[in-house]
Amino acid sequence: MSSVPELDGVMSAGELQLTADHLASLQLDSGMIPWFPGGHCDPWNHVETAMALDIAGLHLEAERAYEWLADIQRPDGSWHNYYANDGSVEDPKLDTNVCAYVATGVWHHWRSTWDRGFAENLWPTVVKALDFVLALRRDDGLALWAIEPDDRPWSYALMTGTSSIAHALRCGAHLADALNDPRPAWRRAADEMMLAVRTKPEAFEPKTRWAMDWYYPVLTGAMVGEEAKARMADGWDTFVMDGLGIRCVSDEPWVTASETAECAIAFAAMGDTSTACDLLRWTRTHRRDDGSYWTGVVYPEQVLFPFDEHTSYTAAAVILAVDAITGTTPASNLFVH
User: Fold this and answer.
1) pTM for this predicted structure
2) pLDDT exceeding 70 applies to what percent of the chain?
């Protein structure tokens, strides 16, 4: 049994446990984890929150989260973009990145628990999800961003989404090997997507305004080594508000703790734990007494944005970053390539 991660000056073990307990308190009887009490849920952030629960040792709660996804998975392997608090569909769009992320989560759970039985039970869910995503690839190997339930697809791919999908495919391939059901085509598809991320920026819909397009190729391992260092250095002045955090978009002073924590994971993935710690320390401004985190703060006014919002995915990202930096749990190297 691994201990609860802690990072000196950033988050004590007790504080991390408090944050994880807050996340667990949000979970509904169905297993769904909304953004906040009465809020909606999207499957991508739901998975990220389940991973945070596993890091804190709340494995049963994490399993309930994955079982909810298995229960509501569509016959084609997909999930809708948003679900309301009562479980009804709020946004019917089918986002390929949202659908792929379950593979990342189930591989993380395997690494956290070594529970083969649970992984085998979720394996059909993972297979259907990744097959759905791969069925929406263009001729250049990149998955379309999304499709409407009436089968009207968007025509473009996204840099952040593709990076995350490729990482999910690699996680799925690792899980496949562990379960003696190899899927080499998933690894080949991931390699093709990551090559495009590195060499064909013109293949993606321009979203350079968003911080995620800056750091996600590094966070997910599409870029490593000197290439990763150069990319992070290139975007630093654009997206970093020194001492405050990462602005979610380059042209607004909106600092979000989730982007700040994820950027910390990217720096940790390439071995720069000093910068990762600095970034994560800046999220302390967002921390609330109950262990939750304000989503965003506008500077210099220090106004909360969105107003009074504290989200599960924000707290989860901080927990994931603490584990990535400290290497505490068996799954802490999920983003190390």
Assistant:
1) 0.98
2) 99
